[in-house]
Amino acid sequence: MNAHAPADALVLNCTLKPSPATSSTDRLAGLVAAALADRGFASETVRVVDHAVLPGVERDMGEGDAWPGILRAVLAARIVVFATPTWVGQHSSVAQRVIERLDAELSQTDDAGRPSLFDRVAIPVVVGNEDGAHHIIGVLAQTLGDVGFTIPAQSSVYWNGEAMHTTDFVELDAVPEAVASAVTTAASNAAHLADLLRRAPYPNPQAS
Amino acid sequence: MNAHAPADALVLNCTLKPSPATSSTDRLAGLVAAALADRGFASETVRVVDHAVLPGVERDMGEGDAWPGILRAVLAARIVVFATPTWVGQHSSVAQRVIERLDAELSQTDDAGRPSLFDRVAIPVVVGNEDGAHHIIGVLAQTLGDVGFTIPAQSSVYWNGEAMHTTDFVELDAVPEAVASAVTTAASNAAHLADLLRRAPYPNPQAS
Amino acid sequence: MNAHAPADALVLNCTLKPSPATSSTDRLAGLVAAALADRGFASETVRVVDHAVLPGVERDMGEGDAWPGILRAVLAARIVVFATPTWVGQHSSVAQRVIERLDAELSQTDDAGRPSLFDRVAIPVVVGNEDGAHHIIGVLAQTLGDVGFTIPAQSSVYWNGEAMHTTDFVELDAVPEAVASAVTTAASNAAHLADLLRRAPYPNPQAS
Amino acid sequence: MNAHAPADALVLNCTLKPSPATSSTDRLAGLVAAALADRGFASETVRVVDHAVLPGVERDMGEGDAWPGILRAVLAARIVVFATPTWVGQHSSVAQRVIERLDAELSQTDDAGRPSLFDRVAIPVVVGNEDGAHHIIGVLAQTLGDVGFTIPAQSSVYWNGEAMHTTDFVELDAVPEAVASAVTTAASNAAHLADLLRRAPYPNPQAS
Fold first, then answer.
1. Is residue C168 part of a domain?
2. For residue B165, what are the domain limits?
3. Using CA atoms, how far apart are residues A80 and A9, in angstroms rounded to an integer?
4. Contact with chain C for residue A207, Cβ under 8 A
5. Nearest Cα to Cα of residue C129 among C162, C96, C157
6. Does the predicted interface ipTM exceed a cut of 0.90?
7. What is the pLDDT of residue B4?
């Protein structure tokens, strides 16, 4: 990650596997990033587990905390691709750590008195060898919406295999057509909404 | 409900109690409707349990099915206030019935080949004597997002009492300040987003 | 349903489809019922949508309410197989209706002053053409646990296809081996626990 | 933690706050531990965030991984009090980390060929300044049930304040009566069930 070169889109890859292990989450999020690039949104990717994001709910948990650098990248982006694997039907501990750290933004406002994350758009991406995606999409839509993101229509992207199967997305020879279609819809809708909110930001609700 | 007089906003009250019983859900949703009216969005309210919405996942389940009339009101609205009580920590069976019926819209497209519910904005409203709101907001954001609604930033509104308390929202003497603030934010953001999407609808993702 | 001939096990099939339509939920729950029969627990099945279970949270919602008859069957059983389809990632409106009606049992006690549903064991069964099962199993474990059921180890049974697939469980030529194994585990553990609790019921917690 | 002195009960405190900070989770879990002690189950407590539990889904993630020591304590206990705070409506990243590590137990069996965690009983404990408990109880019941724990009747314990309040459980002058009652029920039922399963373990389901 280079926090000094902000991109219009940011992929937060919340896999449990440090680099350079292959990651199904990376593969699926990468498809979304490519579709966003086609629509003018260049992406930067942060593989969160490679960084020491400390437990806590403050903006900066002090010495050794890598979160402030990641937060700068979040605040510099217009679209955040929030990508998590599925473990025992749930979003990863790394994803939950990011959500906890974003919680600190609730008490932050910009120059116009608006929450710091307003006008940003989120795309939930969930991958697993099996079941859990709808639930996790709900968790991400709720938590990211709470802290200030807008969730476009049909913007979630997921893949999981049949019940109790063990194949990973990274092992598939080809991307299933239904996944490719969902990626296109999510990228198209997120790009549209991010453009609208860039040109016409939310007013300060408490001042309107 | 008068499906022939479309309003810009529609409140779907998913209480279990038929009219004319008092309803905490109605009280909280009414606050949102009033805040939307202040921003130019007149509301119509449908108390779903008063109508015979049949089980199933088709647009019209046949004789005696009241859903087609309610669906017309949904399609005529720009903002849908989706309001549900909390029972055993979950959204009501009436709310789930509505979600199941909206599922049929996944296979419907408009003249531009877009999903029938695109450009509509949803406000999740959840009330309970106790705990469950965040979970239900996630369920509503996921299900309504799946069928085509857009979820604005910080657009959910909820109230619940302390753990294992039994006071209902309708019994409160005054609306808590935090609730009033959340109502203002939700209405302001939903009105802003609905206006943006009216003037600049989502393009057909599969054609872009 | 014959409420006068109590069985040791009760299947609550919460499909949205009235009889005699084929039901994937019925097929999967039937496998569990057969495995319970092998362990001495005869089953009765109630297809809830065939009965007029009225909205509300009282034991008896009055004229035309079919719930009191179903409740008698629940109270007569030692094992309840709670089976629901997956719609938009959630348990069905019929399943939620049952949960709402069971909520009334929270204020009911038996002769020993214990909650009316104590010593009963629940098996969550979830089926869908796609994703949602783990979430729904969590919802069922929480809600059924709240009202008094015990949830055995590894007692949930589910099937869903790959992401965004449309095949139903009832269309599969053969039962997948992983499903058959889960059915065996759930039935074995539920039968063991139901026997233990029949011989040694929970004491009244508030009196111990 | 002293992994060499196994207790009959183990409290896993999944707060985000390292020792010696005060912890609402600790206070509520402590009430459960005291009630278990009254019923003959001595407790040991592990504050997980004080230990370097590495990300991953193997039993031992290698150098510096503190999980193997904690796992020994889990396997030595008959009752696990799984206690988590609520952050943005979800279980903590520390709690999810524990769940991910317990996932490795799915492929472990004991001498009788049974899953390694069979016959153990779990008590979900959830605390938050506001809403989220029912949802998290569902998540814990599902995930802990999947890996082999049994969930007793009415065994969950929680506290949260009114919607959008900020008071912490640790700040309450007195324990609310409803919480005390829930603690008693959970401890009584868990102790009863743990005793039953100690005397009559689950048979190997695949061999029965």
1. yes
2. 9-207
3. 6
4. no
5. C162
6. yes
7. 37
